[in-house]
Amino acid sequence: MNNVYLIDKPEGFTSFDVVRYVKKSLGIKKVGHTGTLDPFATGLLIVCTGNFTRLTDYFHQYLKTYKSTFVLGEFRDTDDITGEVLKRFEVNPIPYERVVNALKSFEGEIEQLPPFISAKKVNGERLYKLNRKERKVEPEKTRVYIKEIKILSYNFPEIEVEITCGTGTYIRSIARDLGEMLNCGCYVKSLRRTKIGNYSVENAGNIENLKAIPHKDILPHLDAIVPDEEKTKKILSGNEVFLSNFDVESEKVRVFSPFFRELLSICEVKKQENGVILKPEKVFKREIL
Boundaries of each Pseudouridine synthase II N-terminal domain copy (predicted)? Predict the structure, then answer.
């Protein structure tokens, strides 16, 4: 059962809780998600089943959009509302322009320190397991990309923001670092992922109403083709095929069954003078039904 599901993760569920629920609901073993959401967070979680669990890396290429409420005035051990207060500040309202300038400084490619309590692994162990009782292990900084941070509203001490960023970015770290920059502390009160690429939480179902998206809507940034039956069989056997007088814009293509009903393979495109060679990168089925 190769499918992709858009799920609006409820608060209190871990991403693995959702995976486990989907496994039980559909009665299948191969299920995976394409990007973790913290238990207190809500919003879009993309879940893949069957051989489509091998699509995870492709979804990581997409930018993600979050809406979040930051609260100034405290540092917390988890950098969010679920944590214990580490330090509380007595501060006067901070001017709007100062907040704007501070947040803008995080845009672009930056070095970011992940939260001390997170799913980030250090020497094979999750930080939340290593640091839950006390801070024992400090994570290494990672390079992340933040495309844009918009302030949707500001009513001190709360800031509502919309952040568009790349894979691996921690919104909690942005809040914590903002608190350090403003010298007043800051943590995340609420967090909701609204988009992954062009996929929107508005089109997502809940975990009790699973709806697979059409295969033609999977990885739409890649060109799509329906080769003839002979070439399709070769691709499904893992062999390269040559398509004469054929050109595509993307570096990889999606190979479909007739009428784009079923995604069969992802192929690397090697451009030639009079056509292209398709080299199978991922094959999801071995035959056409």
Answer: 23-171
